Every structure is written in structure tokens, then in C-alpha cells.
């Protein structure tokens, strides 16, 4: 496994564009979280300090940081589809197979790299959230600090699922631009299908079915925290309550999609004439 990851990382690091995108993927969400925790003066009129709003309190900080950090996954999505696009355009895929790398090892090298970057991003966000929480949180009890830490697991699974989908589209279309376009199209198609179901069926069934769709199931892993923040400010408004918890079945759905995308990527490579 380490040999395959090392091989893939060498390829990515030698590519200037991939190297820049990888650095941005790791640094940008980490930097945004740090910057959002400091005082920001607005032309001497007032000072914005998000920490004073209570959003960096434990345990809600795990929810907030993972939700907003997940939006930066698109930078690494470009890296993932480029991993495949460059293999075809530079003909390194065929050369790797000639040099003795099996098709299974080729796909595994991509998958292990996805796992590596997803885990690294999760650890960085976890560390940043932990220390910012220690600085700003009103709660210091260990039972409260580590409550809802499962949002980090959801964040990891979310990245894993999304990058596995990117890998599949990269293998299917062979071109980075086409793969990214297909990724955006999938989001629109899911939305259109949902609207059709809502119109034709109605009730709760469209929502239940929609939550099994690839993109939507990844989004549902970490629900938006804005409503939760509002709930802390207006606890008397019970109509604002909603289920924001991380559920095991949501993780299982995304892991299922991840496994399917990796398997389909392997089947494509196995049957394709190189």
C-alpha cells in the first residue's frame, strides 16, 4: 500500500498544477477557520468576532468547521480527475502496466491516495477545530469537548465518497474537463429528478429516495449548521428544531457508493483496450 501511495504522490508532486491545488486544498480551509476566529475590524465602525457569537463553542464547533471545510473539496476534486486525465494524455497508464503494475494495483494506487488525502484533511480540520475550541469555548469538560466528534468521521467519509465519484468520472471520460463537467451535471440531474418526484408523488417519499442519491447522500452526512446556530439564540422557537446528527445509515450509504465507484472504475479499466 505504501509503495502505491508513494508512487502516486511522486506523480502528483512532479506536476506543478497538481502541486499547487494540493497545497490550496490543505491550506485554504485551515486558514479560513483560523481567520474566522480572530477579530476583524470594519473601517473603525465595528469589530466582527465570530468567537463571541458562540459558534466556536464545543461541541457545535465540530459541526460548523466540518460543514464549511467540506466546500473546499472541489480543489482536490480537480486533482483527482487530473490523476486520471494525465495518465491517459501522457500515456503513463500504459507505461505503468508495461513496467509491471497490474490494473488492480493501478486503481488501488488512486484509491489509497484518495484515502490518504481525505484522512490528512480530516486530521488537519480536527486539530484546528480542537485548538480554536479550547481558546473560544465556554465549555472545557472532556465530555462536552469530545461530544459530536463523529462529525469528523462524517467529514472523512464525505471526502472519500466525493473523491471516489471523481475517480469514476475520470476513468469513464478520460478527460479532466469532461469529468468535472459531468460532476456538475450530476448535481443538476439529481435536483431535476427530485423536483419531478416531488411534483408527481408528493409527501415524504421523494425526500427519502433523494437521500439515497450519490451527491445528496454525501451532503446529508453533515447538514447545514445555520439553523442550529439560530436555535441556540432563539431556544423558545421550537419550530426551528431539526435533525442535524450524524447517523450510521447515512455513513453506510456513502461508503456503499464509494465502494461501487471504485469497483466500476476497476471494471472500466479492466475491460478497456489501452
UniProtKB/TrEMBL annotation:
One of its GO terms (cellular component) is plasma membrane. The chain crosses the membrane at residues 20-40, 60-84, 111-139, 151-170, 177-197, 248-269. One of its GO terms (molecular function) is ABC-type transporter activity. It comes from Winogradskyella flava. The lineage of its organism: Bacteria, Pseudomonadati, Bacteroidota, Flavobacteriia, Flavobacteriales. Pfam families: ABC2_membrane_2. Keywords: Membrane, Transmembrane, Transmembrane helix. This is ABC transporter permease subunit.
Amino acid at each position: 500500500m505504501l509503495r502505491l501511495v508513494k508512487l502516486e504522490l511522486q506523480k502528483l508532486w512532479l506536476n506543478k498544477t497538481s502541486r499547487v491545488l494540493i497545497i490550496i486544498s490543505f491550506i485554504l480551509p485551515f486558514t479560513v477557520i483560523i481567520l474566522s476566529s480572530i477579530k476583524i475590524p470594519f473601517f473603525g465602525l465595528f469589530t466582527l468576532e465570530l468567537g463571541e457569537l458562540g459558534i466556536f463553542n464545543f461541541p457545535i464547533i465540530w459541526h460548523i468547521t466540518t460543514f464549511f471545510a467540506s466546500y473546499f473539496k472541489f480543489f482536490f476534486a480537480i486533482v483527482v480527475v487530473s490523476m486520471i486525465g494525465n495518465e491517459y494524455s501522457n500515456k503513463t497508464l500504459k507505461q505503468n502496466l508495461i513496467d509491471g503494475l497490474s490494473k488492480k494495483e493501478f486503481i488501488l494506487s488512486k484509491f489509497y491516495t484518495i484515502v490518504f488525502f481525505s484522512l490528512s484533511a480530516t486530521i488537519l480540520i480536527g486539530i484546528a477545530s480542537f485548538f480554536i475550541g479550547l481558546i473560544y469555548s465556554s465549555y472545557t469538560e472532556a465530555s462536552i469537548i469530545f461530544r459530536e466528534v463523529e462529525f469528523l468521521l462524517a467529514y472523512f467519509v464525505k471526502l472519500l465518497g466525493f473523491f471516489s465519484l471523481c475517480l469514476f468520472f475520470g476513468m469513464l471520460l478520460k478527460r479532466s474537463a469532461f469529468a468535472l463537467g459531468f460532476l456538475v451535471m450530476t448535481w443538476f440531474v439529481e435536483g431535476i429528478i427530485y423536483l419531478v418526484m416531488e411534483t408527481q408523488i408528493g409527501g415524504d417519499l421523494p425526500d427519502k429516495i433523494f437521500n439515497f442519491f450519490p451527491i445528496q447522500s454525501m451532503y446529508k452526512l453533515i447538514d447545514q449548521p445555520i439553523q442550529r446556530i439560530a436555535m441556540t439564540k432563539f431556544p423558545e422557537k421550537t419550530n426551528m428544531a431539526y435533525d442535524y446528527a450524524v447517523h450510521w445509515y447515512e455513513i453506510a450509504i456513502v461508503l456503499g457508493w464509494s465502494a461501487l465507484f471504485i469497483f466500476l472504475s476497476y471494471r472500466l479499466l479492466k475491460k478497456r483496450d489501452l
